[in-house]
Amino acid sequence: MSPPYKVKRFAGRAWSVVAVLAAPMLTTLSLTGCDNKGNAVSAGLPPAVAVTVQTVSTQAADAEIDLSGRVEPIRTAEVRARVDGIVQKLLYTEGTDVEAGAALFAIDDSDYRAQLEQANAMLQRALAIQKNAQAVVARFRPLVQRQAVSAQEYEAAISAQGQAQASVSDARAAVTLAKLRLERCTVRAPIGGRVGRALVTEGALVSAASATLLAQINQLSPIFATFPKSNTAILDLMDEARKGGLQLNQDTRFPVQLTLANGRPYDEVGQVDFADLSIDPTSGAQSVRARFQNADRTLLPGQFVTGRFRIGVRKDTVMVPARAIALNAENATLYVVDADDIAHLRRVVIGDQQQGLWEIRSGLANGERIIVDGWQKIAPEQRVKPMEEQPAMGSTR
After folding, report:
1. Is the dihedral of CA 85, 87, 93, 95 positive or negative?
2. Do residues 247 and 312 lie in contact, with contact meaning Cβ atoms separated by under 8 Å?
3. This model's pTM is above 0.70
4. Residue 277: how many other CB atoms lie within 10 Å
5. In this predicted model, what pLDDT tens digit does every residue of 314-367 receive, in sequence order?
6. How far apart, in whole angstroms, are the C-alpha atoms of residue 322 and residue 372?
7. Which member of 38, 136, 280, 346 has the lowest number of beta carbons within 10 Å of its beta carbon?
8. Is 241 exposed, middle or buried (0-12, 13-18, 19+ CB in 10 A)?
9. Cα 234 to Cα 91: distance, rounded to the nearest angstrom
């Protein structure tokens, strides 16, 4: 084999050796670059991730609290039997609105009609006896002055007249009682409202002694919604107001906005009209009650609702979008971006949520930047590429 061939073969091996030795150096050089600020980026770090950030600022915001509660009728009445007898007829349509005094049930009244006739007869007898006693006294009065009748006989006549008058009063009371019993055979609504289903049927025996329950009436307009609130939380609000961080409404009739069980907001705004002065010893809660007109009868007794109470204005409040907060069973966290565009995981204490914004009680300062979108794609202490977004004002003032 000729020498040129040998030289060429040796040259090929040399270049292969050089390539193998130079490969790590070339790899290192390829992983070394410059970031946007002209600084070297360490080898092996992930590239900056584009995220959306907001700069937080303190501002005055509506102080609102959300409480779960239940709807209660403003008045409720249990319709019960006040006489003994057999139910003859149902006189109303179940589930409808009735006026006070409307007839609801008819109970067999034949016995009570007979009792009324008997009481009237006794009254007539008593009136006749009274009339005779009065006549005897009138006849004896001039005779006793002429001593034609003894004083003892005259006094006996006067006593008989008094007994006759008492018998008349007793008979009249018996007539009144008989009339009441007869009237109670027609069971009437004690209040106006919506009457529920009948709890007895025709032919059922009802009793006044056991006060048989016949139906129930609930007044639906206006109506109440009652909410339990922790007494500890109420004391915290009072302390915050005392320190000046919370400015309470001058009018204690705070407005209340309801959310129904299906998540739909209720159109009417109610007002707080009562706060219980005692604390439930079992739960440590204090009841707060709001009043609603409920003209459309949407709210029904027993319904579960959520009430949002606007109690005043909280000063120097930081509000952040709810989508920026990561919640778990123990704490709430978000990402804060520093001046070098490095994302730091921060634990914060949240307050109330209103209109898609969380109130930050502590853990976040005025002027800091937080990540609102894209934080799910990064890890703590990772460099990001922030894009500024203007914060939504929401319910802040």
Report:
1. positive
2. yes
3. no
4. 7
5. 777 888 999 999 998 778 999 999 999 999 999 999 887 777 888 888 889 888
6. 8
7. 38
8. middle
9. 49
Burial classification of residue 384, based on how many CB atoms lie within 10 Å of its CB (0-12 exposed, 13-18 middle, 19 or more buried):
buried
pLDDT tens per residue across span 43-54:
456 788 999 999
312 pLDDT above the threshold of 90: no
Tell me how many degrees the CA angle 138-144-149 measures, rounded to the nearest 5: 100
The single-letter code of the amino acid at 395 is: S
Q: Which residue has the tokens 């059922």?
A: 204
3-state per-residue secondary structure call for the chain: CCHHHHHHHHHHHHHHHHHHHHHHHHHHHHCCEECCCCCEECCCCCCCEEEEEEECCEEEEEEEEEEEEEEEEEEEEEEECCCCEEEEEECCCCCCEECCCCEEEEECCHHHHHHHHHHHHHHHHHHHHHHHHHHHHHHHHHHHHCCCCCHHHHHHHHHHHHHHHHHHHHHHHHHHHHHHHHHCCEEECCCCEEECCCCCCCCCEECCCCCCEEEEEEEEEEEEEEEEEEHHHHHHHHHHHHHCCEEECCCCCCEEEEECCCCCEEEEEEEEEEECCCCCCCCCEEEEEEEECCCCCCCCCCCEEEEEEEEEEEEEEEEEEHHHCEECCCCEEEEEECCCCEEEEEEEEEEEEECCEEEEEECCCCCCEEEEECHHHCCCCEEEEEEECCCCCCCEC
Q: Tell me the average pLDDT across 363-391.
A: 90
Distance CA(302)–CA(215), nearest Å, equals 17
DSSP β-bridge partners for residue 81: none
> Token digits for 233?
């939380």
CB 221 within 8 A of CB 82: no
Query: Residue 233 in contact with residue 63, Cβ under 8 Å?
Result: no
**pLDDT tens digits, one per residue of 19-61:** 433 444 444 434 444 454 444 444 456 788 999 999 988 877 7
Residue 90: the pLDDT is 96
Share of the chain above pLDDT 70, in %: 85
Q: Pick the closest to residue 358 from 310, 315, 396 (CA basis).
A: 396
Listed residue (384, 395, 373, 372) closest to 56, CA to CA? 372
Among 10-24, 115-129, 278-292, the minimum mean pLDDT is found in 10-24
Place of tokens 């894209």: 374
